[in-house]
């Protein structure tokens, strides 16, 4: 069963997420050979992000909101949306998404589905990260460099693909590009939150671990 089979399409408290810490993790195996060389192997095709939302708490109101959110998700049972404060756009953090930001593929006149991705790096070493939770209303798509009307396409959250409408498939040879804001699907990486009111008032921040879930 997919880890996203039990997904609540709700956003973790935004003000708290913008103060969170964390980032991507890779899982690689490195074996030292008798020759002195190393054999390296990637265990995961995609990175997995970890966050600590505790560092984003600024008030008792924030703490109360997170506790209510934790209870509504039944701890680690249900995944949800999280706005990564470091990486949440198809473009640079200070810019606004453009429909030309990310290359998704080349049209052939018949294909109507294109996986939504964000590319890191360039050339043969570039990494394409699947994007499964674009922010509603932020998705912009272009074919052949011309922005497509919003009524010409939709997004299939089950597959992570842009879906062009019937008769709207990009023409043969046309580049398909997109721009967007996006959330990360995560769950609580714990089934217990331990909070001391006295410690919180003294500035001791509780740990609230979150972990990305894959489709």
From TrEMBL:
InterPro entries: DUF2460. Residues 8-213 form the DUF2460 domain. NCBIfam families: chp_TIGR02217 (TIGR02217). This is Uncharacterized protein (TIGR02217 family). It comes from Aquamicrobium terrae.
């Amino acid at each position: 069963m997919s880890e996203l089979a039990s997904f609540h399409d709700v956003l973790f408290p935004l003000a708290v997420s913008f103060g969170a810490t964390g980032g991507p993790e890779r899982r690689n195996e490195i074996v030292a050979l008798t020759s002195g060389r190393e054999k390296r192997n990637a265990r995961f095709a995609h990175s997995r992000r970890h966050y600590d939302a505790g560092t984003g708490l600024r008030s008792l109101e924030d703490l109360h909101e997170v506790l209510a959110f934790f209870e509504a998700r039944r701890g680690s049972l249900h995944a949800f949306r999280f706005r990564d404060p470091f990486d949440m756009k198809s473009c640079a953090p200070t810019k606004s998404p453009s429909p030309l930001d990310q290359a998704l593929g080349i049209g052939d006149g018949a294909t109507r589905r294109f996986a939504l991705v964000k590319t890191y790096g360039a050339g043969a070493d570039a990494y394409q990260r699947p994007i499964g939770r674009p922010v509603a209303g932020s998705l912009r798509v272009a074919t052949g460099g011309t922005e497509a009307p919003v009524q010409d396409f939709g997004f299939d959250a089950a597959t992570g693909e842009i879906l062009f409408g019937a008769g709207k498939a990009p023409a043969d040879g046309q580049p398909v590009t997109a721009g967007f804001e996006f959330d990360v699907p995560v769950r609580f990486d714990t089934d217990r939150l331990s909070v001391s009111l006295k410690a919180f008032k003294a500035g001791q921040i509780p740990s609230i671990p979150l972990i990305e879930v894959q489709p």
